[in-house]
Amino acid sequence: xxxxxxxxxxxxxxxxxxxxxxxxxxxxxxxxxxxQMRDLCSLKIDGGLxxxxxxLMRVFFETKxxxxxxxxxxxxxxxxxxxxxxxxxxxxxTDNRPRIELVAILIDFxxxxxxxxxxxxxxxxxxxxxxxxxxxxxxxxSQTNKKQKTYSFKKILYVxxxxxxxxxxxxxxxxxxxxxxxxxxxxxxxYVEVNCLEEINGFKSSSKKPIKEELMNLEKIKVCDTTxxxxxxxxxxxxxxxxxxxxxxxxxxGYHPINGKPLKPxxxxxxxxxxxxxx
Length: 279
Fold this sequence. Notes:
By secondary structure, the chain is α+β, with helices and mostly antiparallel strands. The protein has nine helices and 13 strands. The protein is elongated, with a radius of gyration of 32 Å. The chain crosses the membrane at residues 156-173. Keywords: Membrane, Transmembrane, Transmembrane helix. Residues 120-141 are annotated as: Disordered.
């Protein structure tokens, strides 16, 4: 009589992984990336963890009992998952127990953790078939897991779909109660985001425009003879003539927010005529 070894545990995990990766509703296990593995950990928490699984996760993520496990997962360096991915792809081996136990949790292997798995005794003999008997015992464990995986991954699917539903509901409520600011309006010397449907004194403002990200940084600026107008020979100040005596200046190309005229790159002629000669 002998107990299952840690090597047996890792072998059983890999066999179970081969069985369930194609049935994973999230698609993560089939071709995992570090970021996806981190997100799968968060999904596991949303689906509910046993006390043992939570303790094992806290060990892996180095999270204190009083701290939020989900927040630790969100903030963790995704490089922590690279050795795990290499292990399940059979590229490298590892005896790091927190990593192995996290694999067991993510693929919903049972029995876990290793302490429970090692308590399952295998029938052994001195015959040449003893090694084969050990392999068959591990295979039986994987077969047992096949029956359990369907419920487990359906549970994750329901949680995942539930989160999507709540998010969609949140967007609907947000749009109704707090309409998204999808328009912009010029105020003094810059654009601000505003609600497209908002009325001013009972009338809709005609100066509102759909938001254009490239214009949200447009600013009217004040210039003088010490202003830097060029960098590496290129204009970094733009202007628009309002009338024969008045010129307005801006920090980027575009169109004048009031009269719609194109903003032109500053020239030495304009600087000399309208800026230096007026001071």
